[in-house]
C-alpha cells in the first residue's frame, strides 16, 4: 500500500475548483477585496509631510491632492500646530462605478510640536498644486546671560 502525504493547499484548491464554480469564487473575492479596500482607504488617510528648515524659517509641506483650501483647517494652540480636514471620494453618477480605487480618502489630522523660537503671530499658509505649505518664521533666540558672583 502506498501512502500519500496530505497537502492542505492541494486539498483547498481541489475543494475550490470542484465544489464552488470559479465564477462564484471570483465574485466572492471581488466583493470581499473591494469592501476591505474601500473601508481601509476611507479610514486611514494620512497625508505625507516634508519639514524643511531654512535660515530664517521652518516649512511644513503636506501633500493633499484633490483637495480645496476651504476643506483644510490649521489651528495653533499652546506649542502645537494641527492641520486637519477630510478628503472625500468623488460621487459617481447613475450607471457609473469605480473598478479600482488606489487613493486614500477620509478624515485626517496631523499635529506637530513647534520649536521655541517661532513667531506664532507670523505663521503663513499657502495652497498650490495640491501641496499645503506652512511657513513658520523664526524669532531671535533670547539669550539669558547670568553673572554669578563668587563668594
Condensed summary:
Helix content is 22%, strand content 30%. The chain is built from two helices and seven strands. 7% of the residues are buried.
Distance between the first and last residues' Cα: 102 Å
Task: Give a short account of the largest sheet.
Answer: 4 strands, antiparallel
> Helical segment tally?
2
Principal-axis shape: elongated
Q: How are the strands of the largest sheet arranged?
A: 1-2-7-6
- The appropriate CATH architecture of the largest domain is Sandwich
**What is the CATH domain class of the largest domain?**
Mainly Beta
Poorly predicted residue ranges: none
Number of domains: 2
And the CATH topology of the largest domain?
Immunoglobulin-like
Average pLDDT over all residues: 80
- Measured by DSSP, the beta-strand proportion falls in 25-35%
* Approximate helicity band: 10-25%
Q: SS-based structural class?
A: alpha+beta
Amino acid at each position: 500500500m502506498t501512502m500519500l502525504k496530505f497537502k492542505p493547499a492541494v486539498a483547498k484548491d481541489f475543494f475550490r475548483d470542484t465544489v464552488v464554480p470559479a465564477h462564484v469564487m471570483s465574485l466572492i473575492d471581488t466583493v470581499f477585496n473591494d469592501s476591505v479596500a474601500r473601508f481601509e482607504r476611507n479610514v486611514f488617510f494620512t497625508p505625507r509631510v516634508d519639514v524643511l528648515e531654512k535660515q530664517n524659517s521652518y516649512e511644513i509641506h503636506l501633500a493633499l491632492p484633490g483637495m480645496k483650501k476651504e476643506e483644510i483647517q490649521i489651528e495653533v494652540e499652546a506649542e502645537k500646530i494641527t492641520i486637519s480636514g477630510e478628503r472625500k471620494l468623488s460621487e459617481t453618477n447613475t450607471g457609473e462605478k469605480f473598478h479600482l480605487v488606489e487613493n486614500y480618502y477620509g478624515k485626517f489630522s496631523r499635529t506637530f510640536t513647534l520649536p521655541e523660537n517661532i513667531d506664532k503671530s507670523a505663521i503663513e499658509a499657502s495652497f498650490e498644486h495640491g501641496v499645503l505649505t506652512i511657513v513658520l518664521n523664526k524669532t531671535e533666540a533670547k539669550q539669558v546671560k547670568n553673572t554669578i558672583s563668587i563668594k
